[in-house]
Specification:
2 domains, seven-stranded parallel β-sheet, 7 strands
Length: 259
């Protein structure tokens, strides 16, 4: 299937590894020109080489903090008029809400809600002018089924979800879609860290906790980042022009509800 995004310009945050990198790889494979962003120069440059070699696409690495004004300005200097924006930022620390200060909460809100809103603010008018745009925010399955020790993530990502619910309908007449992807259990570096935190809290060995989490997935396996990347690329395509304002769960059937 031709997704119709060859030559489109894309920005992908948190793209040196994990789900962000997978999204960048899938977009590049479809012919998009991709600017990938991460804080660490060595990692983001290595990811750019890997993606370019695998796809033949133009891939520009930017070492910057997506969550700071200076970092976002650096990204937009590299790609001032993106057609596609994939907002992705690592989740905040797990723990007990009794231990979190105002500063901890403000950092979580900045990184997992406000940074995405500011990137959208700085790119949406260009998309409106061109009458084409695709925005995907990588949030979490915890938005739909909150996880107790991930309270910072639950709160910040739910705030972004509410904001997107309103904005996405406002810009839909301009052929701009905004959707949120909610990953379930993909065994990325972040997922391993969370599993370690669950194991520590429960007093169980890591391997036992990993087996327990795996046992809750109807598909009987963890997700592959490449699967997530392809889902993201589809949402960024011409083929998905009638999908907007949605929170799309990719979890192998783990969530037990009907809706």
């Amino acid at each position: 299937m031709d997704l119709g995004i060859k030559g489109r310009k894309a920005i992908v945050g948190g793209a040196s590894m994990g789900l962000g990198k997978a999204c960048a790889m899938s977009l590049a494979r479809e012919g998009a020109e991709v600017v990938i962003v991460s804080r660490t120069t060595e990692r983001i440059e290595a990811a750019a080489r890997e993606i370019a070699e695998a796809t033949g696409a133009r891939v520009v690495p930017v070492a910057a903090d997506f969550n700071s004004d200076e970092g976002r300005a650096k990204v937009l200097q590299a790609c001032p008029d993106p057609d596609i924006l994939v907002n992705n930022s690592g989740g905040p620390p797990s723990g007990d809400f009794r231990d979190w200060s105002r500063e901890t909460w403000m950092a979580a809100l900045n990184n997992n809600m406000l940074s995405a809103i500011f990137m959208i603010r700085d790119t949406i008018d260009g998309m409106i002018g061109r009458k084409w745009g695709r925005i995907v925010n990588i949030t979490s399955s915890a938005v739909k089924a909150p996880i107790s020790i991930l309270g910072l993530s639950n709160g910040a990502r739910a705030g972004l979800t509410g904001f997107i619910a309103g904005l996405s309908r406002e810009v839909a007449p301009h052929n701009i879609t905004i959707n949120n992807l909610m990953p379930g259990d993909f065994e990325t570096e972040r997922y391993v860290q969370n599993t370690q935190a669950f194991a520590k809290k429960s007093g169980k060995p890591y391997d036992e906790m990993r087996r327990m989490r795996l046992g809750r997935i109807a598909a009987g396996r963890f997700g592959e980042p490449a699967e997530f990347g392809d889902y993201c690329a589809f949402l960024c395509s011409d083929r998905a022009a009638f999908i907007t304002a949605q929170n799309l769960l990719i979890d192998g059937g783990k969530y037990p509800g009907t809706f």
